[in-house]
Amino acid sequence: MAEADIKKGLAGVVVDYTAVSKVNPETNSLLYRGYPVQELAATQPFEAVAYLLWHGELPTDEQLAELRAEERRHRALADNVRAAIDLLPLDAHPMDEVRTAVSVIGASDNSGSGSVLDAAGSPEENLERSIRLYAALPSIVAYGQRRRRGQEIVEPRDDLDYSANFLWMTFGEEADEVVVDAFNRSMILYAEHSFNASTFTARVITSTLSDLYSAVVGAIGALKGPLHGGANEAVLHIMSEIGSADNVVPWLDQALAEKRKIMGFGHRVYKRGDSRVPTMKAALDTLIEHYDRPDVAELYAKLESEFVSRKGIYPNLDYPSGPAYNLIGFDTLTFTPLFIASRVTGWTAHIMEQTASNALIRPLSAYNGADERHIEGYVPDA
Ligand code: ACO
Q: Which of 316, 321, 325, when mutated, tests ligand 1's pocket best, judged by the most ligand atoms within 8 Å of its CB?
């Protein structure tokens, strides 16, 4: 096989159709079911975007109310999920904690026949499972952060919408509207991004006719890596290392001399800037003003301008979202679990799409190992 025929990292390979979202690197645009993500972030609650990803259309008022009611019904942390989390060491990475919690939810779901032959589930079962996970994840993420801080669990509030309730369960106080709005925008921006590594992982698992929970657990594993979702956590580590705008130049000189990757910059698909960044940067700016933290703005701007001018590599969504989540008060370790809480909507939309027109995903490889050889003294049976 010619070297050129091997598409390492599947770069540039189109493996299937999807109607869930369209990433257009030429125009730096991202559409969810046809709608520009910026328009959705400016006008919709996250619940409506979840509905859009699952159903293909924005909800009517009645449909939105129904989804909200169902989401509220499934919000509370189940006893066995809490017990499983409590068994984990306090220094377990929260991504492992959330992965474990999703696994427990899956193992406890007795809908369906329980036979492996029915694991893939019907469209109705999978929609129900998707809503259940989407509703349960905020309480898992919030509980994780509170547990690590030695704080009591905060129960969900039925009078608050998704984003406001998420912040309530995490911090035990009602967040200001400007904070809820910035958080809601981040949830929308993270929700979906075509065949990224975690979504593709979910589709590969689904393609074997495995179950939705297994596919989400696998996707969480893929998201954890710093080349993917883990970058929002890594951005904060970098910003803490740098400390202040004055230190950007010497820090960057050394980091580039050591050939370090600068987290929060670069993207496999977008080469001239990530379509989601301007919207998230605007949300970050409102938080910077709200919390009166011009130092964050200075560091952000200095690192961006220095790195872009030296390398021509632009920020991705994790660059503004990392400091935004920090300002809101989330622990750095909680950032990637927030990504899960959002992206579970996109993952499950893809899982349902894959199930509806399935083909087992099984690529080929070019062998470059040892030539054929044999066990010394082995004599085949006559
Ligand atoms: N810092 C320093 N150099 C970089 C960076 C970066 N952030 N990104 C790319 N480069 C350089 C690479 O070192 C490489 O240089 P070389 O050709 O001299 O070896 C060149 O640019 C191409 O980089 P690749 O990693 O091969 O490009 P690819 O398209 O595979 O990578 C990726 C995309 C993995 C996102 C990369 O840009 C990266 O590692 N960024 C940092 C991690 C990150 O922010 N991930 C978040 C992704 S977006 C998201 O999940 C929301």
A: 316
**Greatest CA span in the chain, whole angstroms?**
83
Pairing of strands 35-36, 29-32: antiparallel
Checking 358-363 for CB contacts under 8 A at 24+ apart, the result is 358/120, 358/206, 358/207, 358/209, 359/16, 359/207, 360/207, 360/208, 361/15, 361/203, 361/204, 361/207, 363/10
Q: How confident is the model at residue 34 (pLDDT cuts 50, 70, 90)?
A: very high
42-86: per-residue pLDDT in tens?
999 999 999 999 999 999 999 999 999 999 999 999 999 999 999
pTM of the model: 0.95
User: CA 148, CA 310: separation in Å to the nearest integer?
Assistant: 39
- Look up the ipTM and state it: 0.96
pLDDT of residue 110: 83
Check if 261 has its Cβ closer than 6 Å to any atom of ligand 1.
yes
Spatial separation of the C-alpha atoms in residues 366 and 352, rounded to whole Å: 31
**Beta strand pairing call for 21-24 and 35-36:** unpaired
Best CA proximity match to 350, nearest among 223, 224, 191: 191
What are the pLDDT digits (tens) for 325-349? 999 999 999 999 999 999 999 999 9
DSSP string, 39-71: HHHHH--HHHHHHHHHHSSPPPHHHHHHHHHHH
Which amino acid does the sequence have at 80? N
| One-letter amino acid for residue 201 of the chain | T
Q: Which two tokens stand for residue 250?
A: 């010497």
Report how far ligand 1's centroid is from the alpha carbon of 70 (Å). Answer: 40
From first CA to last CA, the distance across the chain in angstroms is 36
8 A C-beta contact, residue 40 and residue 56: no
